[in-house]
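Let's practice the habit of predicting before peeking. Look at the sequence and jot down your guess about where helices and strands might fall. Then scroll down.
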Amino acid sequence: MNKANIKIDVLKKTLSRLIKAAPAKAPEPVDPVTRIIRAFMEYDCDEARSTVAERKIAENMVDHNELRVTPAIELAALLGARYPFAESRCAALHRTLQSIFDREHQMRLDRLGEMRKTEIRPYFQSLAGITPYVEAAVSLDCYGVHAVPMDTKLLLWLVSKDALPETLDLKTAQQILEKHLKATEAADFFHGARHELEGWSPKSWPQVAKVPSPILAPPPIEGSPEAIAKAKAAKELAAKELAAKDAPKEAPKKPEVKAKEAPKAAAKKK
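Done guessing? Here is the structure:
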């Protein structure tokens, strides 16, 4: 990213404003899997609705394992039709929970307590379905790893304040903020930003791509052997259909008329 495209003085003042907006009381600590679920509910959403969503999940699911096996479409229905990006966030949550289970063979992350801090964030970043907001939120709140949870709402707000250019994607914007924030400032910035943006919403949201649910086969990664083979098969099928369409149609064959059998000779007179 070219530094000339970022107004450093505006960015620093904006970051300072959000740090000062941090609530005096820090959020109550929760286990990492619970924090992941909460992060999936709260990105690009206000605190009131995300709190209600988290309560609905707690009331309707026996444990995290039941949540993992609940179809994404059912979870989205539980959140309600008016919940922001319900289908895409629920599908992504399912992929992440399934990814954790595939690695840990349980819905707990006790093993991460033995890891070095430098290993924790890459672990979360490598989970299927994870977003820059979710991996940073759990890394920061549960393990004290320097990270900035970045969602589309925060990015659009920073753009509206002329602190960041419009052309940035979430990951690039996240990296820029992490570079300009000290490790001791990250938590205050995160919770201050959540507090400051509570009543704010952008005039329009970018279109969100649908995320596949783990109950269905995920799409092949672009450029992978599976994707190349799938594209080749689709191309061959299209060519066959086109050839069949352009081929001259054969004239219908006339049914063969069988020759009439010769009449039997008259029976001989006795």
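How did you do? The two ends are 116 Å apart (CA to CA).
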